[in-house]
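Chapter review: from sequence to fold.
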Amino acid sequence: QVQLVESGGGLVQAGGSLRLSCAASGLTFSTYNMGWFRQAPGKQREFVAAIRRSGGSTYAVDSVKGRFTISRENAKNTVYLQMNTLKPEDTAVYYCAAGRNEPSQRPGRWTYWGQGTQVTVSS
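The token string follows.
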């Protein structure tokens, strides 16, 4: 079965950095677009960033542009989210997603999801 396992979350002070990883198994990773979403308490899950199967194109929500970078290593079946200059408002559970549809900000357009990793940014 398909598994997406996120890691790398934790507690960091504002201005700090974290790198999230998502290891995929049970699918042909190089044929899937990959995305990162986040969900803060009491809020809807929101799109953060996405990368096409080839890694040639990436997308990010305006609030993280210039601070977060998505990348992938198809040989390792892994997608990353490098997060720099973190802010308290980045605090959320971060989820990895995989899908063959065009990368979308809509969670329903993604097929597979990980269990999430908590990121907490203190002020």
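Two observations follow directly from the output. The CA atoms of residues 8 and 20 lie 5 Å apart. The chain has no helices and eleven strands.
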